[in-house]
Design a protein that fits this description.
It comes from Dictyostelium discoideum. This protein is α/β, with parallel strands linked by helices. About 30% of the residues lie in helices and about 20% in strands. The strands form five sheets. Strands 1, 2, 10, 11, 12, 13, 14 and 22 form an eight-stranded mixed β-sheet that branches. Strand 17 and strand 18 form a beta hairpin. The longest helix is centred in the last third of the chain and has 18 residues. The model has no long low-confidence stretch (mean pLDDT about 95). The structure holds flavin-adenine dinucleotide.
Length: about 475
Amino acid sequence: MSNVYDIVVIGSGVSGLMCGYKLEKDGYKVLVVEANNIIGGRTRQDFNFTSYPVELGGEMIHGGDTLYYRLAMENKWELFEVFSMDLFNSPINSTYLYLGRERKLIRADQRDEDIQKLADALVSLSDEIDNPNREMNLLEHLIKKQVPFRVLGLADAIYSKTWATDLDRIGVKEAAREDSKPNTIPNNYKVQQSSKIMLDHFSKSLDINLNWRVKHIDTTKDEKLVKVTSYNGQVVQAQRVVVTVPLQILKDGDITFTPELPERKKIAIKTIGMDGGMKIIAKFNKKFWLNNCQLVLCGDSPVPQIWMDGPPYRPLVPGQPSEYVSVGFITGDQAKAISALSPQKQIRTFLDQLDAMFGTSENGWTPASDSFISHMVYDWQKNPFVRGAYSYPSIIPSTYPYKNYPNEILAEPIDNKLFFAGEATATTYDLSTINGALETGVRVYEELKTSLPISNKLQSKPKM
Ligand SMILES: Cc1cc2nc3c(=O)[nH]c(=O)nc-3n(C[C@H](O)[C@H](O)[C@H](O)COP(=O)(O)OP(=O)(O)OC[C@H]3O[C@@H](n4cnc5c(N)ncnc54)[C@H](O)[C@@H]3O)c2cc1C
């Protein structure tokens, strides 16, 4: 019976770890299986590039009233605040907007009339929640709202690139629903020790099999146990199974099911979109950007979002020179294009853009190139067990036959044996984020407590 568990959790991202951690604490016999050779999924860190850890995937805590924030507070993880999510009304003037075609850098609170029109359209997007047209995309909506063509690229950088996709793939009604979800404290925070501290917290007493890539899940009706088979032919069985793999893995059919997934689940998987994402992280020996600049949203540019790291947020290491970092966050179609470039061209593209944004006659026009030390790239499209960034509020085609949102259907358990967590299943909380993923881990934990009361857990062998 050594390979029989109460619950097998597939995937060791934050949703799977959160769920497994809570179940294990309650006394269930839990196994987490992970295809990769490390835990964490889309939260992953590098500890060698700078004197402080660099986040290669999920980075910010979006909001001070979130589960992630509360976890950090409870466990005394050290946080620091960065740019506000409330882009247009932030009291901290640290966000800049860049109009690539005009080579113009504008502080967000000093926006011109055209940008104000865009701001108004984006801020009022949540009003579209009752829009009966589920097929309307954000590009069509902004044109209808007479947002000037000149700033549509900026709309893409501000809004759709945050959702890791493009303007014409965002469904307006779905986006409105996301924008209406609760988040009353719009501040962004980062964990000084990195998200690794959370992974360690959840995983320290969990049983985790790495390099264990699930190929097949058998929930045949009359069998009491669910059978999970790996690509290497190993088998584990459990009373309940939780699937937390990225949406793209389900779309690509990496895991097959007996019996097949219900039609509504298949349609939900097809309807929700997930595009590409990558980061270029560059290190400099000088701070060449404007003193208060933390974030630049770059319209009509290869790198749509750039944020700054290093001093004053990071502690100085005695005897070591300061390291100033720019993170290029590239998603949607730009991520596909930059992913196809050679490593030399990728960094050249980033440096050229930074030079164009911050170059002046005083600093010699090429301040980024002149102070560049080194860089690293993490391309999530090439991670074999993720293959993209995260899900986004998608267009619902008129042929979509259900009243429920596709994310709600994706979250539905099957036959009281198979449960679904992960960022794409976030229904009441924020889709796509670390926090949303954590919340889905808690949701499935609650579902399992009802489905498999602790009195029905497997009996461990009596101690001799
Ligand atoms: C570049 C980038 C930047 C981001 N920035 C932020 C941010 O600043 N703030 C924020 O809140 N969120 C951010 N996110 C999103 C956030 O990281 C994710 O939403 C969250 O980490 C997803 O967690 P998850 O548990 O749903 O999925 P994952 O972390 O993807 O976990 C799923 C796991 O399943 C494993 N798996 C896949 N196939 C199999 C298989 N067949 N068998 C077994 N295991 C399998 C995968 O290897 C993976 O470990 C970012 C994401 C990216 C990519």
